[in-house]
Write a structure and sequence with these properties.
By secondary structure, the protein is mainly beta. The chain is built from no helices and 4 strands. It has a 4-stranded antiparallel beta sheet with strand order 1-2-3-4, with no helix packed on it.
Length: 80
């Protein structure tokens, strides 16, 4: 968020499952958190109930956002 760290190429492709930074890639185009909120990450759910970090988004994705002053966050999820 402060421009620190090495410069890395952002991943590309039709549907990225898990990534940090860049632009949000929504499965359903109507689901958005508008500016000035900044997109942080996209994560996909896991399908293994035995996994201790199991996430269930209904075969969908979770999205993290931060406010312009970096003091508040929002989480949005959408199912496939």
């Amino acid at each position: 968020m402060r421009g620190e760290g090495p410069h890395v190429k952002l991943p590309g492709g039709e549907d990225l499952h898990d990534y940090v930074g860049g632009t949000a890639c929504y499965h359903h185009h109507y689901a958005r958190v508008d500016a000035p909120w900044q997109f942080l990450f996209k994560i996909s759910d896991a399908s293994d109930d035995e996994d201790p970090y199991f996430l269930n988004f209904g075969y969908g994705y979770g999205f993290g956002f931060v406010s312009p002053d970096h003091r508040e966050g929002r989480f949005y999820w959408e199912a496939s």
